[in-house]
Write a structure and sequence with these properties.
Radius of gyration: 17 Å
Strand order of the largest sheet: 1-2-4-3-5-10-6-9
CATH superfamily: Zn peptidases
Order of helices and strands: EEEHEHHEEHEEEEH
Largest sheet: 8 strands, mixed
Distance between the termini: 49 Å
Structural class: alpha/beta
CATH architecture: 3-Layer(aba) Sandwich
Length: 255
Amino acid sequence: MPTFPPVHLSRSRHTPLRPAPSRLILESLPPDQGIYIPKIISKPLKKGQGYKFGIFGGIHGDEEAGTLAIQELIQWAAEKPEELHDFELHFFPICNPTGRNLGIRHNQNGLDLNREFWYGSIEPEIIYLESELRRERYDGIVSLHADDDSDGCYGFVSGALLSEHLLEPALTAAAESLPRNELPIIDGFLASRGIIKEGYHGILSAPPEQHPKPLEIVFETPALAPMHHQVSATVAAVKTILAEYRQLQAYAANL
């Protein structure tokens, strides 16, 4: 797998990495152990009114596409706020900063962080992210990954029943940049046109006690594809998920 240059994150709780437009808020809320995970919030145009989504990248340190895609999504939120007027988006571009700095999948302690959630982990990244997931109670959680054993895009769905109905058009949108993985078994799970309804235990997800469950989507690009194609496919998928969620909510309101 390729390695990437280290990223040095700000140690200030409220010092932005770069100047941020007024609708974007950067919080760097570090665990006590000194590992800094940035969180960028895009507020809805009307205060207190918005579907709240958490978008997470870089939980595996060597999967750069999700981090780069989130950077593009943050820029989109800054430049075209009217397109996100009814969303509150919380971006977590680098969930595993030590792994990213080392260019490895695991964190500096050699653990796959995406198998550690909700099992009483003492890893500082997990403690912080679990606290955010509990505090924010997201309507939707989108995790961005890359798979070096896949030749196309695919995803996992769980939580709210509409997750599958959002991933399908997202994969269609992503197909303008990268093909969909159509295999009947992907990553050891039964799949239907790139959609998997099972999954690994311990992945980044909503708190077990949260009810109703939010929609949860894990979007995967083929890691060996050109990086710019992975990024464009991921950005298209996330934008589609948000647009389709808005439409489904509007439809439900009119029932």
